Amino acid sequence: MKRHLISAGDLSRDDALLILDTAEELARVSERSIKKLPTLRGRTVVNLFFEDSTRTRISFEAAAKRLSADVINFSAKGSSVSKGESLKDTALTLEAMGADAVVIRHAASGAPHRLATWVRGSVVNAGDGTHEHPTQALLDAFSMRRRLGRLEGLKVAIVGDVLHSRVARSNVLLLGTLGAEVTLVAPPTLLPVAVETWPCQVSYDLDAVLPKSDVVMMLRVQLERMNAAYFPSAREYSRRYGLDRARFGRLHDDAIVMHPGPMNRGMEISAEVADSPRSTITEQVANGVTVRMAVLYLLLGGSEPAIGTSAADPAVQTVPGGEL
Ligand code: CP
Description:
This protein is of the alpha/beta class and 324 residues long. The chain has two domains: 8-133 and 284-323, 3-Layer(aba) Sandwich (Rossmann fold), CATH 3.40.50.1370; 134-281, Rossmann fold (3-Layer(aba) Sandwich), CATH 3.40.50. It has helices at residues 13-30, 55-66, 87-96, 111-115, 134-148, 166-177, 206-209, 234-241, 245-248, 271-274, 281-299, and strands at 44-49, 70-75, 101-106, 122-128, 155-159, 181-185, 201-203, 215-218, 256-258, 308-309, 317-319, 322-323. The strands form three sheets. The protein has a five-stranded parallel beta sheet, with helices on one face. It has a four-stranded parallel beta sheet with strand order 2-1-3-4. Helix 6 (166-177) links the parallel strand 5 (155-159) and strand 6 (181-185). Helix 1 (13-30) packs across helix 5 (134-148), helix 1 (13-30) packs across helix 11 and helix 5 crosses helix 6. The two termini are 27 Å apart. The structure holds phosphoric acid mono(formamide)ester. Residues 53-56, 127, 133, 136, 260-262 line the site of phosphoric acid mono(formamide)ester. Keywords: Pyrimidine biosynthesis, Transferase. Belongs to the aspartate/ornithine carbamoyltransferase superfamily. ATCase family. Pathway: Pyrimidine metabolism; UMP biosynthesis via de novo pathway; (S)-dihydroorotate from bicarbonate: step 2/3. It comes from Microbispora corallina. Carbamoyl phosphate binds at residues 55-56, 105, 133, 136, 261-262.
C-alpha cells in the first residue's frame, strides 16, 4: 500500500483485496458487544471537512475511535478558514498538533493531492470535488462482495449524474481493477468529457441495461453543483433515468440496488425501491465503518493481522501489541 489513499486508481488488485479482506475480519469485531480494538492507541487521526458530510465524516470518526486512535474533528464552518486561513496553513497547524493521518473532504478536486505534499502523515481522500471518493468505492465493492459473493465478472450499472460524481469515477477505477464490468448510464449531458477513455461501457438506455445487470448503483442528482440546465425537468429526468417499481421489475431476481447517499427520494430512486430488501443502502453505511477501519489500520502501519483470537479464550481479541 502507498502512504496515502487519494485515488482508487492508486490501489493494485492486491492492495484492494487486502483492504476488503481486512475489513471482513474487522466486521466480525463490529458484531460483538465490545467493538473497540487497541490497534491505533497513541495515533492521532484528524478529520478535516471543508464540505458537508453525514456518512463519511461520522464513519471515519467511528472507525478511528474503534481502533482507539485519538480523533480531532475539524469542520471548516466555525474555524479560522472563515477568516481566510488557507488550506496549507490549516494543514500545517494540524501537523503541528501531531496528526498521523488526515482525512480530508474538500470542494476542490485535487485538494488531498496538494495536502499530501505539505504533511508528513497519511492523507485519505474523503471526497474531493467531482474527482474521487475512494473509500466509498471500497465500501461499495465490499457490500457487493458480501451480498453476491464475488466481484470478478459482476455486471454493474452506475446510473445518473456521472458528470458531478466522484463516487462514479472511483467505482469505475476500483471495480475495473477487481474484474467487474461497469456500464455508465446517463443522459449525454450528464457524462464527463472523454468518458470514452474510461475503462467501462457507456449507455443512454437504462431499460436496455437493467435486465443484464447484477448491481444497479443509482447516483444522486447533484443539483448544488449544477450551473446550467442539464435536463428539461426533474420529472423528465425521473421518467428516463429514475429507478421506480416498474424498472425494478426488469432486474433479475438476485440483482441488488445501491446508492451512496444522500438520496433524492422520488427523483433518481423511488422510496419503495430504496427501502426494498434488495437495496443495500443501509448496509453500505454500516460497511463504511469497517472498510474505513481497515484503511486506517493498513495506512498507519498494520503489518500484522488486525485481529487474532486467543486460543485460551476465544472471546478475547488479540492484536499486535495488546489484548482487549
Ligand atoms: N456517500 C457520502 O459520501 O455521503 P456523505 O456526503 O453523507 O458523506
